[in-house]
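Weekend entry, working from home. Most of the wet-lab plans are on hold until the incubator is repaired, so I used the time to fold the two sequences that have been sitting in the queue since the last round of cloning. Logging both here for the record. First:
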Amino acid sequence: MDGIDRQIIAELVEDGRLSVTELSDRVSLSLSATSQRLRRLVDGGAITRFTVALDSAVVGRPIDALVDVRLPSGGPFADLDAEVLSLPEVVDAVHLTGRFDYQLRLRCASIDDLDTILRNFKETLGVEETSTRIVLSTVTGMPRQPTPA
């Protein structure tokens, strides 16, 4: 990956809806050279998908919560994985080291919805402990994509 590839990625991170024509103008390459590089970045796995960022409050999910989850020893990891994938409220999930096994980010319509999900984790999946924090605000510009090294 060279400087032009990094520039293409930076432009697309800023605005993933750029046309190849606009992108080629911004990186000062021909349309065909830009298309070729973009295809190589996608085929090589550097760019895994093109997506859209939504305003959670506008789409009806104003409650933003971070939930740490601890499973019992030898807990149902596959069951929890399947459950979080089935819930539209779970927008991010990571497996962790340390006291808790997972950290989940949920976007819920209400506190009641969040409570229902947490109760379900404990009653249905046998989750041993949760620690929930409500997000008050997010730093402007976050979350962001990693930049190429």
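Second, folded right after the first finished:
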Amino acid sequence: MHNKVVYHAMKAFSAFGIPVLRFNFRGTGLSEGTHDHGHGEQDDVRAALDWLDKEFGKPILFAGFSFGSAVGLKVCCGDARVKGLIGLGLPVHAAGRDYKYGFLPRCSAPKLFVSGDHDPYGPRESLAAVWERAPEPKRLVWIGGADHFFQGAAESPGAKLDRMQAEIRSWLHDTFGLEEVGKSD
């Protein structure tokens, strides 16, 4: 919840005046419960969606990072309240675990995947294959010289978080016609 990727994603949504809920999965930080390898964490996402729906009653845009993107996409695909999905650093293979996205071919909501081209958990060829199975509308963006956390790779030092954030903002504008708060042409 407090890492730089999640923070910069939150700032991108906030620039459009969109309410943002950041939360830790069970057993992370000060959250109760224990890690459940993606099973119970789906209930955490459902609880977050229910809370957002009850609190704001507006269409929901989901964004998740790494494990959070994998779990969140699975829950949010097909939920009528969720109008768009963002997977940041979507893992394909991490910590000895293969992530499966068999649900994506049925996911009709607009999708944005943003990954570093040096992300060891989402190698370019593997992630591109996942993205190919997803129906339109979809966008896949590779941040050059970035690792899993959108930090610079050895040959391209320096954080790339601003580029990740710019891609989110561009997608929100292009896909939903949203304008940044206080920004006029």
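Plan for Monday: verify the second prediction. The chain has a mean pLDDT of 92.
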